[in-house]
Amino acid sequence: FRGHIGAPMPGEILDVLVKEGDKVNQKDALFVLSAMKMEMTIEAPVAGTVKRIYLGKGEKLAAGDLIVEIEAFSN
Description:
Layout: E1 2-6, E2 11-16, E3 23-24, E4 29-35, E5 38-43, E6 48-53, E7 60-61, E8 66-72
Antiparallel strand pairs: 1-8, 2-4, 2-7, 3-6, 4-5, 6-8
């Protein structure tokens, strides 16, 4: 399983809290998004390794834009 984490709504990335190669646990914060004058922290849906980061701090995005890809740990 790969966790493809996208933008829940249009906005701007305020901060990316992980880097490629980082190990994350389920619910770890991945990035902070500003949308509709609100800030939201997007969390990892699975535990795994950050495989790729597609967008960076300050970038504008549309709903559904892919931001982070996580490869889940196998049990």
